[in-house]
Design a protein that fits this description.
The chain has helices spanning 4-27, 36-57, 75-96, 100-128, 130-135, 143-166, 185-223, 228-242, 244-248, 257-282, 285-305, 321-334. The protein is mainly alpha-helical and 350 residues long. It has one domain (4-347). The two termini are 26 Å apart.
């Protein structure tokens, strides 16, 4: 049965905390204020923070409820709450003392635990076993899905950059970085980008877990009870609306605050179907977090650092309207029939 009360509390807490953080960012100068990326990172933690907090202490039916015999797999959830607290303290420190020294210190303090989080999930996987880790929604799934979907996301955005170049919507020349003597500048630039993408995606997956455990974990499992296709589409709309304050401040679609609200909902709905499909196939919310991290790494690297930024972010491929249309076509192709959206997939590791 659909847990209307539980979903109400989850959405209220998630949106309330996120919008409050965004409001403070706006009042302090928006996306030009000191340390605003830390605050944005904190807002990314809120969906999982809310789901874990409620699941651990207020939802007795939750698989991670503190009185259930869930074993050591729950340690990761407690660590995630601790890390969220560390991020919050760092953000408050930057707000109180917005100096360059404070920002550097907070950057170090908030980045080091990422390695601990990644190491912890690996240790717990082998210490507790596949079934135990799956019971607390931390299943890994088959590694082939990680490779397949990860490469597919990278290929998708390379195609988007190429389409921008073909249709005159973006630049077409690779920006080379300073290259050590003896190396081919093109080869070095590409290999360096690949290395940063791999390492960054693995570490950033812990941050993106902050969204995916809430959206593709808790909320999706509940919304499926309203109808599986309806649930995944409704989730996309909710996920998009959750981004609205950042969009109004110029994030993602600078110069298009109102159109950006619509584009973000469409983007989250189309991409959300693909994320949900990946989780459905693998049984792993962690895979969704990894794919989200790949997305968040490859877009700025390809478009900004490697020089393929579209001239107009709203009317272009990538995260623009043409890119969203491309993702929607992919979503329609991969989306399984309604009766195959299994709401209990999170409890099984394949």
């Amino acid at each position: 049965m659909f847990d209307k009360k539980g979903v109400f509390w989850f959405l209220g807490l998630t949106f309330g905390l996120t919008y409050l953080i965004d409001l403070v960012i706006y009042l302090r100068g928006g996306l030009t204020s000191p340390g605003w990326p830390f605050a944005m990172q904190l807002s990314m933690m809120m969906p999982a923070f809310s789901a874990i907090l409620l699941g651990l202490f207020f939802f007795p039916e939750s698989p991670i409820y503190h009185k259930r015999p869930a074993g050591r797999g729950r340690w990761f959830h407690y660590f995630f709450l601790l890390y969220t607290l560390i991020i919050a303290i760092g953000v408050i420190s930057v707000w109180l003392v917005p100096s360059e020294g404070t920002i550097k210190m907070v950057s170090i303090v908030t980045q080091l635990p990422l390695f601990v989080g990644v190491l912890l999930i690996v240790v717990l996987r082998f210490a507790t076993g596949r079934e135990a880790i799956a019971r607390v929604w931390l299943s890994w799934g088959n590694w082939r899905y990680w490779l397949l979907f990860g490469l597919a996301f990278v290929a998708f955005y390379i195609l988007q950059a190429a389409l921008n170049a073909v249709f005159g919507l973006g630049k077409s020349e690779l920006v080379l970085i300073p290259t050590p003597q003896g190396f081919n500048p093109y080869t070095y630039t590409i290999l360096r980008a690949v290395g940063i993408l791999l390492l960054g995606s693995v570490l950033s997956a812990f941050i993106c877990f902050g969204e995916e455990y809430g959206w593709r974990g808790y909320l999706q499992s509940e919304l499926f009870k309203l109808g599986r296709v309806r649930g995944v589409l409704l989730l996309g709309v909710i996920w998009g609306a959750w981004h609205w304050p950042a969009i109004l401040m110029g994030y993602n679609y600078p110069g298009y605050p109102l159109l950006g609200l619509v584009l973000m909902v469409l983007d989250c709905t189309a991409a959300g179907v693909v994320y949900s499909y990946a989780v459905l196939k693998s049984g792993s919310v962690l895979l969704a977090a990894f794919l989200h991290a790949v997305n968040n790494m490859v877009v700025p690297m390809l478009f900004r650092e490697m020089g393929f930024m579209p001239y107009d972010r709203a009317f272009s491929f990538g995260i623009g309207i043409y890119g969203i249309a491309t993702m929607a076509i992919i979503a329609i192709i991969v989306a399984p029939p309604s009766h195959k959206w299994n709401p209990h997939y999170l409890h099984v590791e394949r």
